Amino acid sequence: MLSKIHCGIVIGVLSASVAAQAQDYLPILQYHHVSSTTPRSTSLTEAEFIEHMDYLQSAGFEVVDLRTALDKLKAKEALPDKAVAITFDDSYRDIYSGAFPILAERDYPFTIFINSEPVEAKRSNALTWAQMKEMEVAGAVFGSHTINHPYMLRKEEGESDEAWLSRMTREVDSVEELLVEELGHSPKMFAYPYGESNKTIRNIMKERDIIAFGQQSGVVSADSDFTNLPRFPASGAYAKLSALKTKLNSKPMPLLSEEAGGDFATDQPVSLRLTFKQGKYRLKDLACYVSGQGKATLDWVSDSEVIATASKAFNTGRGRINCTMPDNSGRQYYWYSNVWIRASAEQGYISEKS
């Protein structure tokens, strides 16, 4: 019979082993098309997708159900070691024909954010409700990507702020109702078209208890904004396996706070202020990169606070700053990204104050 001391040692070793196999963050992969005949910017081929999925399998990653994993993170419960989630945006039928057989063969759960208009119009390149029900049996989950895939922060010509908000509310609520009507339930998850949102739109999600996703890169943790979660793009220019490996080995930047000055950029260079949690980090190795400009200037306000500034203003469209920092092991990187919109007058964007 084992002594109490021996039992205590065994339990302690087992507890340490379990802790070593736990993860308190989640990288999420974002795909669109899986096809060789669709626009390359949002596509990867079936062969490339197989390469991605084979790597997840051979490297010991555990593909998890997205909503379940996010609920655990919010509750500060541990995820399996090397947990990762897979998502698709839009209602493309090639997800069913190109991706689904590959995922089903490996028994990988996945989430598709659908825009409902192509489905309801029964377009030939769109998923059908019957196909969605078939995929659900194999672990698929369907969230919302609006009705018509609009730029959610753009007003139509002559549209008031109130009318814009009413239209955007319909874009959210209508798909939620349709998911319940056709599939019997909704996971209450939403992906912003083009990754664009503002405080008003994010409040819609918060009021409805919907978890929402942008298109900024990064890793989700309990500290993340669950109305604007990051994902890693894995298609087009990001389809190379080497890029995927780097992202899968990323961790959330250990931030106490972040300030980016709002969702919109102006005719002045953007900057962001990052304050790090207490801890031993390789802050001297922090590097921030501005889209289309190279490295940002880093101004250390204190030992734990830095301001990263772009060298010049963004052009019209979306611009971002990505920051990375190696962890103490040198085998993984902390990752953070922020996106701004530089709007032009003719695009009709809602004002920053709305």
TrEMBL record:
Keyword Nuclease assigned: no
KW Membrane (keyword) present: no
Record's subcellular location: Secreted
GO molecular function terms listed in the Swiss-Prot or TrEMBL record: hydrolase activity, acting on carbon-nitrogen (but not peptide) bonds
Residues of the signal peptide: 1-22
NodB homology domain sequence ranges: 82-284
Superkingdom of origin organism: Bacteria
GO cellular component: extracellular region
Keywords tagged on the record: Signal
Chief localisation class: secreted
Pfam families reported in the protein's UniProt record: Polysacc_deac_1 (PF01522)
GO biological process: carbohydrate metabolic process
PANTHER family according to UniProt: POLY-BETA-1,6-N-ACETYL-D-GLUCOSAMINE N-DEACETYLASE, PTHR34216
Protein name listed in UniProt: Polysaccharide deacetylase
Native source organism of the sequence: Marinomonas ushuaiensis DSM 15871
UniProt lineage: Bacteria, Pseudomonadati, Pseudomonadota, Gammaproteobacteria, Oceanospirillales
